[in-house]
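Re: weekly structure request thread

Next one in the queue (90 aa):
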Amino acid sequence: MIGWPLDSNVIRRGSESNTFGMVRHRADGSPKPHQGWDFHAQTGTPCYAIASGKIVSVTNGGDYGLVVVQSFTHGKPLYAAFAHLSKALV
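Done, posted below.
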């Protein structure tokens, strides 16, 4: 079963471009994919695993800041990345 990562899962700024799919645009106006949902949360808000699985990496740096990547199975192997975290307790 897949759940939600936050107690309140609200798309950041209510913007479609912060949702999953072909919702972003290149400089020439052509569509490009966004690979997830960007949720609004205050610093320090607890973020939970979305399914039973394993933590495969914890990295810090770059555009996504502190990132935890989780692997899990939902009919096939899948991964979830939790980015822009203030800390990771895994």
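Strands lie at 21-25, 31-34, 53-60, 66-73, 77-85. The two ends are 20 Å apart (CA to CA).
Next request, please.
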